[in-house]
Amino acid sequence: MAIIKTVEVNVKREEPKSALKSGLAKGAGLLALGGAAYLAGHARSVKNGLSAPCKPYIWDPGRGRSVFLKGIDLVDVKRGLVQRQRGVVFEDGQITDVVPTRDLAKIKADRTFDCEGLFVIPGLINAHSHVLLPGTAMIGLDSLLSLKRQMVRNLEECPLHGVTTVRDAATLSHLLNDMCRKIEALELLGPRVLSCGPGITVKGGYPDFSRPLPGGLAKKYGSLTIYVTGPDSARQAVRTAVEDEGARFIKIFFDERALSFGRKPLNVIDDESVKALVEEAHRVGRRVAVHQTQMVGFRRAVKLGVDDFEHMPIDGLLTDRDVANFMKGDHHVTPTASVAMALGFAPEGHPARSDPAVEAMQALRDRMLREIVPSLAEEAILRANKKMAEMYMEGDLSKQRGGALAMDNELFLETLQGIIPNVTKLQEAGATFCCGNDGGTPLSFPATLSIEMEIMEWLGFSRSEILRSATINGARLLELENELGSIEKGKLADMVLLSADPLKDIRAVERIEAVFRSGVLLTRGRRFPLESR
Fold first, then answer.
1. Predicted structure pTM score
2. In this predicted model, what pLDDT tens digit does every residue of 101-152 receive, in sequence order?
3. In whole angstroms, what is the distance from residue 35 CA to residue 18 CA?
4. Distance (Å, whole) CA 152 – CA 140
5. What's the DSSP call for residue 353?
6. Is 402 left (phi over 0), alpha (psi -120 to 50) or beta?
7. Cα(246)–Cα(239) distance, rounded to whole angstroms?
8. Beta bridge partners of residue 502, listed in sequence order
9. What SS3 string covers 499-524?
10. 363, 361, 334, 345: which is closest to 478 by C-alpha?
11. In whole angstroms, how far apart are CA 118 and each of 462, 502, 504?
């Protein structure tokens, strides 16, 4: 009997535990199912809310058919003047004639458009961009679900805003090259893109937030980064970038500290490896560009024969000797001042708000968020940028969760306050400036080159200088001066038709009536009807 009682007692004690475990398991299962159902429904909702793809083009004249833009006011970017009542004839994507006023009535073409009252400039060239980056640093579930569409949209928006050529300064080259093939086949709306493919750096170097993809993903999408360990691997890195990734130029990095909060020290590629890399790049016909935001990097790049300079040194003032040494070489510089505008947050009461440059950029950023970003970003990307701006303006983001990976707004405020003297010194010496906005970085998009142009005017560039930086200078940087950058016989028919004169108001580049890339009409406004004879 005692044994029976013991068994009965044990059974009674185990039953509640067993029931509890069973109930918890069922509850957890129901919660998991409910959570999965919610996430699936949320994902469908985000994807259903994505923007619709754009038409890849409006009108293709076809092979062997001539097009005549009659009576247009042609902006001569080389001389900085407007040639009134001219004509432009093109066929098979190439300009065949620029017609003086007296000969307009003599021209016969398969299609003639009356362009009286419109202005034409060369297609704009964004000289520094990252078309596959989403334009935000805050990546959550909704942003990830929007990422693929935003990548495509970055390309689509470029011609809609007059950008017909993009120089991409580090990307997943296989993925981008696939998109570019679709653009050239008129299956996808976009600009022509010339990329460096992966950036070349050392372990522990800038960009410290980027890592090489695992083998399988790298093979499919391309590499973001190639690490070098010495001169031999530097030469091999160049060959890999050119032969395997299709690089049109080579990009390296000279920053010795991070741009994020804490400004941690970074490793930098050594001099002998740089010399080997530059030599190999020049041997295979590629220019070398360097990311540099510090005086030490600027001076090293000049000394080691690097060709082109991305961004500007902001931690000191260039000396006359620095400028003289720079001017001895065949260099281009692309300031990308839009980055400082986007990330140079100064909350109310910040001492920097007394600086006119800082205050002007705060107002421009507010306009970007209010008027511009909503028109070219997916909803999740817009929300992420608004949240980022809110967090910065609330105070010290470095103390917020995840702040260690956030860009240091104080560093970009220093850029806003320090960029003008160095730009001015190089400009007065006759340096060749190009126009690029680092599109794809937070609050900047490849299509918004007009914002960089607006900032360049604020920095002291004349409107004719700005137009040159965004056209003929960009073409020279890409070594495509014989094909792009101005409206001349023999060049590609990349043209942007405007309703106002950009030499009087640089924001006229936003008043677009038509955009042609290689003679194909990609977008048009109401003043450019296809019903023209």
1. 0.91
2. 999 999 999 999 999 999 999 999 999 999 999 999 888 899 999 999 999 9
3. 25
4. 19
5. G
6. left
7. 10
8. none
9. CCCCCCCHHHHHCEEEEEECCEEEEE
10. 334
11. 22, 11, 14
In sequence order, which ranges of 208-355 are alpha helices (DSSP H)? 215-221, 231-243, 271-283, 295-303, 320-327, 338-343
Burial of 349 (0-12, 13-18, 19+ CB in 10 A): exposed
Tell me what percent of the residues of the chain surpass a pLDDT of 90.
79
Residue count (the chain): 533
Q: Which residues, at least 6 apart from 124, have a Cβ–Cβ distance to it below 8 Å?
A: 162, 163, 164, 165, 435, 449, 470, 471, 496, 509
Q: Return the H-helix or E-strand segment holding 375.
A: helix 373-376
CA neighbours within 13 Å on the CB side: how many for 222?
Answer: 25
Q: State the angle between helix axes of 320-327 and 409-429 in degrees (0 to 180), rounded to the nearest 10.
A: 70
Tokens encoding 269: 């590629």
Residue 405 structure tokens: 């990976």
For the chain, the distance separating the N- and C-terminal CA atoms, rounded to the nearest angstrom, is 110
Q: Are strands 199-201 and 192-195 parallel, antiparallel or unpaired?
A: unpaired
Token pair, residue 190, equals 């976009």
330: which 2 tokens?
A: 């065949």
Q: What is the DSSP letter of 62?
A: -
Residues 398, 404 contacting (CB under 8 angstroms) = yes
Q: How far is CA 274 from CA 5, 280, 408, in A?
A: 86, 10, 28
Predicted confidence (pLDDT) per residue in 472-524, tens digit: 999 999 999 999 999 999 999 999 999 999 999 999 999 999 999 999 999 99
Q: Which of 157, 145, 151 is nearest to 48 (CA)?
A: 145
- Residues 377 and 465: their CA atoms lie apart, in Å, by 30
pLDDT at 261: 86
User: What's the rounded Cα separation, in Å, for the pair 271 and 191?
Assistant: 36
Tell me the torsion sign for CA atoms 28, 30, 33, 38: negative
On average, the pLDDT of the chain sits at: 91
Integer Cα distance of 475 and 492 in angstroms: 12
**Are the beta carbons of 132 and 149 closer than 8 angstroms?**
no
Residue 11 has what pLDDT? Answer: 41
